[in-house]
Amino acid sequence: MNTKTRHIISLNAFHIKLIALITMTLDHIGAYQTFTYSRSVNDGLRIIGRIAAPLFLFMVIEGMRHTHHQAKYILRLYTAGVIIEIINHIIENNTGTPGLGNTLPTFFYTALFIFCIEQIIKNRNNAKAACAAVCGLAVPFLFYVLNVVLACQGYAAAWSMISIFCPSPMDIDYSILFILIGIAWYFIDNRAINCAIFALLCLICRIVPVSIFFTTQCIWFCPVVFDIFQLFTENQWLMCLAIPFMLLYNGEKGRSLKYLFYIYYPLHVYILYFIQFLKNT
């Protein structure tokens, strides 16, 4: 188990979360062009912002390792994700300006799949419990099938409502690849190896052109229902900038930020969004 590492400079969970919050805020300031229209400034802020998502994922994995109630933790991620998605729909429908993201479903599915895999491992001799865990892994991908079917039949609006409560794991922020990385981090549980895996993903995102994903006309891999394309665009490969912070993590909790993220994340996005919306009206 590689949960505590001592460095001359070390970061506890509070420090990691605070860095993630700050870099996320800078990313969104650049994305919404809140204070400047300078492309170089906004691009610089967005590069700094690449640090945020991997650190939040890193903390979700640590949360799953150390929480005393994994099921409650997963439920909290799901509930927060649904609430944010409902508010996003209300705002977008009333302003006519889409673009509000929601990373909570990504973190929810990461935690859920980890929980289900662990239950399968722990209950190899308990068919009922193991089958329930298998269903927990399989059912979300039925939402992906439903998304494809509704898209083919012209019922995209219906899926838009269903996805609030039953999001497809194939159409989430940062994609299914982020979920797989999170699962690998949890079960490998070796900081150096985990960072090497993430560095490899960032390298792949850098060298693989996004155009390679648009060579097929198959609906199953259309960006509307299967979204891994965003990881291969812009400066997403610079997520590797988060690696030094992960390596400096000392495994200690520090001050609690249990609910701050759930409040601050949507609140600051809405503030920046409305500033930009009012500037454009």
What do you see in this structure?
- 65% of the residues lie in helices and 0% in strands.
- It is an all-alpha fold and 281 residues long.
- Helix 3 packs parallel to helix 5, helix 4 runs antiparallel to helix 5 and helix 8 packs antiparallel against helix 9.
- It starts with 12 loop residues before the first helix and ends with a helix.
List the defining traits of the structure above.
globular, 281 residues, mainly alpha, 0% strand
Q: How many extended strands?
A: 0
Structural class of the secondary structure composition? mainly alpha
Distance between the termini: 54 Å
Strand proportion, as a percent range, falls in under 5%
Radius of gyration: 19 Å
Largest sheet: none
Give the helices and strands as they follow along the chain: HHHHHHHHHHH
Uncertain runs are none
Q: Calculate the mean pLDDT score and round it.
A: 91
Q: What overall geometry do the principal axes of the alpha carbons give? A: globular
DSSP helix fraction: 55-70%
Number of helices: 11
